[in-house]
């Protein structure tokens, strides 16, 4: 089984890059390129969720939040938006039997949702990035807690260093008090690491610009030298929150079409981690 999974992962890396950017009729397309080569996508307004977006299939739901400061390499709620949202949805549909919702143009119908919006309950999974700058309102704290305890699932990623972790830990502890819902390190043998792909470890990957310019993958130097892959579980052991700190997995989705070298090195593991988490969340 391990050999088969390894073969599938290698085939995914080879075949996927060969198809990048091709507008194949009847198939959703990978979003390729940013401004100025390794620049970022033009800042786009939120694609707010409406009842018409939901039909029971999978929507990539991105959580909107207010930031009280700025971190280098991040832009708050819309970090890696919309490329990561689109591209992950395309690959999820290709690599699994998950039925991804498409819009009228045939592209994935990703959405942005406020934590206080009742439409959040149409999202089995909520994705947030650059969460080291978030400040939740009291209403958001209550609504996010209710969402998670009623079966929702939160993925957070792409936040770096000690200050970002401290701020996020403080905010998520308001949502899920640590005396009852402690933050744990997710071990390599946890089910979320093996839902579909046999992931031995969550790799550290920086954003593509940082990697091209420095050759490094630690965006905060010695203060982000180690990836922290952590979670929060309920009383039965089901993960409610998965947190990837000191790594930028969504950049391996967003940027897959900009550099073959970057794709070959980082995207197979990045997609494997993302697919595993989504399948775990939808089956537990």
CATH superfamily, by name, is: Domain of unknown function DUF4159
Number of separate domains: 1
- Could you say what the CATH architecture is? 3-Layer(aba) Sandwich
CATH topology: Rossmann fold
Mass-distribution shape: globular
Given this structure, which CATH class is correct?
Alpha Beta
How many β-strand runs?
7
> What portion of residues is helical?
25-40%
Mean pLDDT: 90
In short:
The chain is α/β, with parallel strands linked by helices. The protein has helices at residues 2-18, 83-95, 138-149, 161-175, 208-214, 249-254, 260-283, and strands at residues 61-64, 111-114, 126-129, 154-157, 183-185, 228-233, 239-245.
Structure description:
With 284 residues, the chain is an alpha/beta fold. It has helices at 2-18, 83-95, 138-149, 161-175, 208-214, 249-254, 260-283, and strands at residues 61-64, 111-114, 126-129, 154-157, 183-185, 228-233, 239-245. Strand 3 (126-129), helix 3 and strand 4 (154-157) form a beta-alpha-beta unit. It is globular and about 45 Å long. Mean pLDDT is 90; it is low at 1-24 and 35-41.
Topology (elements, then pairings):
Elements: H1 2-18, E1 61-64, H2 83-95, E2 111-114, E3 126-129, H3 138-149, E4 154-157, H4 161-175, E5 183-185, H5 208-214, E6 228-233, E7 239-245, H6 249-254, H7 260-283
